[in-house]
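The aim of this short unit is practical: by the end, you should be able to scan a pair of folded records and say something sensible about each. We start with the first protein, listed as its amino acid sequence and then its structure tokens.
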Amino acid sequence: MRLVSVNVAMPREVTYRNRTYPTSIYKEPVAGRVRVGRLNIEGDRQGNPKTHGGPDMAVYVYSHDHYPHWEADLGTGPLAPGAFGENLTVTGMADDQVCIGDVYAVGSARFQVTEPRTPCHKLAMKFDDPGLPRRFFQAGRLGFYFRVLDEGEIGAGDEVVREARDAAGITIAEVARLWADKGAGPGDLERVLAVPALSASWRAAFTDRRDAAGAKPGGERDWSENRLTWV
């Protein structure tokens, strides 16, 4: 596993379909070594702190191994690192290989996996493709967020070292599939909730799902207003 690129952006306002949004999805690779703080990488800020950022979403990670799929899907030709708004473009860290709670060292910084990415309208806006968020989710190529355990410096070419595997071994792909399964039972949801490293926002959402599943046969409920809705 290796760090291909560190990508940053400051917020800007972009108008898409008659609405203007603050966004930092237009990230660009940076040269040299970069300082990682508790909430941000140097030179990077979240466009909307109400829905992005904070300790549980300090750094977004995406595997460059997924790029050929999207280059074919989008018909764009080669995509530059940071194309999907990720802070760290890496190799060898697919959604079915990385678990919630895993701890990684990169350069002199240390990180812990907290949650999957939930693709939203900002992704559709960047590529002018309203269907992309749904395809992104269905493809199982979401990427994930890190919380910062130890601040430090990182740079392109650094090795990514997994220092610890969470005991539960619940992958990013499993969490995403469970989220998509509206009939998931309380036991399945409780298995994810038992992972201490799970982010606060996903913990709250899965707690609601578990409680509803326990109250209604099949756990049926309309989740269209949930803050983790991805379309």
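Turning to the second protein, read its sequence before its tokens, just as you did above.
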Amino acid sequence: MRQLFIIVFAFVLGGCNSAKDICGMYHLISDDPALQRITLEIYGTRFSGQGPCNRYFGSITHSDTGSNSIQVEPLASTKIACPHLSAEHRYFQDLQRVSMFKVVPDGLVLKASDQKKKVFTYH
């Protein structure tokens, strides 16, 4: 059991050790009650999280230029209905338009080419 834990721990850390790393668990900052439960977990080039209704997951491609440019690949989610599906749909669309990231002292800022920002705190 201990060996399995060490292997899993090394695997998780192995994906999060370069200058481009944004690995971690985050919580979206929002005044909208429908969006206050959103989480985002990034590990290497993969991400997952909890939307207002559904769990979601996908992958990120980092730019080779050394900048903070990223591309969020099409994401997938579970399909549970709830009163906040329209807010979730907007969040998923905004997330897929993200093109830049910035690590800040208390979390992460994701920015799209249309200048929309999503601000997350460490969870």
